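Re: duplicated header lines in exported structure tokens

Our pipeline writes sequence and tokens for each protein into one text file. With two proteins the header for the second block appears twice in some exports. Here is an export where it did not happen, for reference. First protein block:
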Amino acid sequence: MPKTIAILHYTGLPVIGGVEIIIDAHARLLNRAGYKVKVIVGEGPGGDTLPPEVKTVVIPEIVSSGGPLRSVLKALGDGEVPATFEDAVKKVDKKMSSALRGVDVCCMHNVMTMHFNLVLTEALARIMKRRKSTRFIAWTHDITFGDPRYESHQHGRHPWSLIRQPVQGCDYCVISKQRQRDLRKLFKVPAKTLPVIYDGIDVPRHFHLTRRVEGLYYKENLANTEIIALSPARIVRRKNLGVGMEIVAALKKMGKSVRWIITGAPDPHNPESMKYYRMLKGMRKKLGLQKEVIFLCDRFDKEVRNRDLRGLYRMSDVLLFPSEREGFGLPVLEAGLSRLLVVISDIPVLREVAGRGAMTVKLGGNLNVVAKNIMTAIKKRQSHRYRKKVMSTYSWEMVYKNRIQPAIEDPGSVWPARKP
């Protein structure tokens, strides 16, 4: 039976903020992974991006303004603990306890290190002390203590003491090594007790990938692929796709992970086109490139649309365009606007269109040399290196796989000093 995960913050989308965007992404990731997900917020119904399977619980008292408890939070903001504090805590404790019923892991974003709603923080501290059936993770984005902006809220007494020292029954994580240094200094604990779980970026959404191309992105693990090559070309002989096949084989031989995406399809009514297509598939098998060379006509049930193609350009690294003959070569311009490394055959019309902005391939030349030249050119592109780092380290699927899932399923691997 899948675990139930609660994600807790003062507010959720459509209230705009960095943490709100992050918890929205976490909810979608965990839902896609098969968990039951519950978002608990003081305001915001969860936004239009959340799948219908994600349950949202709104508790007005836990918003950072206090909602119905506004006067209590105002007094706390002035550094005073009002006589109504205890009643307010009991009210929030009761509502939170109900919301957490059946929850296996509760991820609390910022509420254990920020002063914005100390009624909620106190209620959670009490719940954690008595509730052993739920694991609690304090997801730390920001810290009141040590931040000069919040100097007037840095009091040494209770309940402010709850956000300046670790609370029993709670694991803490941080979103960066900088936050790890900040919290380690405040809590006076070893760094290993404060693992870093980075924020991430939704690469398919950023690239505006269509659903079909997004599916390809995930299935082929393109976040971890060193070279994504693209050929927007029909499967006809003059496109010279066999040369591209040999370049891909040479790159693979160099130990590089590569995917070459060919967008076009053969003409089923043209025997010559179908014969060429069969020849290419045979060549792919002979060279051991079944994984590396992707014919989209085999993957998509309908032809590639313009929106698909625009997304493919955005996520690719190299245009591979080894045609024998062209009248113009529009993909060369499209690839240039998309900042791809342009690799073209050394024919007059493509040289005319590309000028000096492309790498040329002499037909009949040494394709191993071409592969090495491609890698040399890519290594010189600092933007390419950083782009690959973002995709392989900070894309949400990689953050989830390497950091979030272990925090949920194998806490001992994330918090080595943690007692079971």
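Second protein block, exported in the same file:
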Amino acid sequence: MVGYIVLALLIALIAVIVVRTLRFKPLPQTPVEHTEVEIDAEKAARDLSDMIRCKTVSHADASLDDDSEFLKFEMLLPTLFPKVFYNCEYERLSSRALIFRWKGETNAAPVAFLAHFDVVDVNESEWSKPAFDGIIENGEIWGRGALDTKSTLLSVLSAAETRISEGFVPERDYYFCFGGDEEVSGGGAPSIVEELGRRGIKPCLVLDEGGAIVDNVFPGVSKPCALVGIGEKGNWNLQLKIASKGGHASAPPADSPLDILAYACRRIHDHPFKFRITPPAKEMLRNLAPHSSPLYRTIFANLWLFAPVLNLLTRKQGGELNALMRTTVAFTMAQGSSGANVLPSSASLVMNVRLLEGDTKESALARIKRLVNKPSVEYIPLVGSDPSRSSPTDSMGYIALERAIKESFPDVLVSPYLMIAGSDSRHYLKISDNVYRFSGMYLSAEERGMIHGKDERISVKKLADTIAFYYRLIGILQDI
């Protein structure tokens, strides 16, 4: 009898799994027509090359910045985009905070397009070509900032320049907000937000860097995916430090500072933060999982049963999918003594904590303290921010953005996602509920590795496609 009951329950379980999987179908899509846009790709390439030749490297210590290079970049813009400067109000809050206002004919809610023109430094010896020469070769523009994000800034202004030259007059105000210290979490973007807030400006759409069109980003999905960031993980650094008497390594104590820090690392590594499916991850699963292979579709359609399996897989594999599902900790810096035979008088390590929505700096610190549980460890919170709140996917801004993506890249799947890196966009949540992160371009895994890496470059075609994307988006926002 018991055997029959078990068999019946097993059959019922399998039936539920099969039915839920069969019902887990792709969301209905509204067809859109791909429209051709003529872009002067050669001019765009030359313009980006000129921008790259401005060595706008930002440093945590601002005294190391070369202000003349930032001024050079600023003075370059009106020569590249004369119609934008003639038709838009231009305001320089500082050398690191530039605002353009393209005035609309009505009081419709405004739009803000963001980018940053500062870049991270380079190790020239690792590059195949000079990082700040803006070389154009074999259909590619080389140099620091080619992807992150001078190409985005150029695309925004090029799209506006083209629209203006065609006699286009927007119904709503457009704000082009460009920061010059995003890479060091500087004050440029916050000062822009403060000024827009003071004026009572509440954009219906804020669009910044972040998501892109990528391949092989979701298990079992072969089609390219356009990922739109609707939220952003928190980014926080925490230092663990231990002081001791030091001494000679020939007579070590039972537990040296490095012993204790190694123990702390192991405890934190072996006890990862809780697996959670937040609203952005849930929407991503609903949009992309129905397009995955049968095995993965079965798992994602039945997370009520298979969530522990997904937890185990993500924890074991690490990477982007794991980062979408939990707060992560990466140990990035460590310091001990200056000699191989010297016990350190103090030792420290720094961890970078990427906070999932629902966690905070305070809750993460409390958890880490409980795990380590060593009275000799000092916890020193460094710079950081809590997670941003998520933006809706049924807003006018998101709908327009989705349509522009489909018109520009008709063969891709569009999905919300959680941005695991950081951007200036988080500041704009003070003045808008509709903040999204999408870069408007295809990025291969190799190209994503070039961001902050070596040999950064973008193809002329991809640059032209990004300009066309912003051009279409401006037109869609006129009609919606």
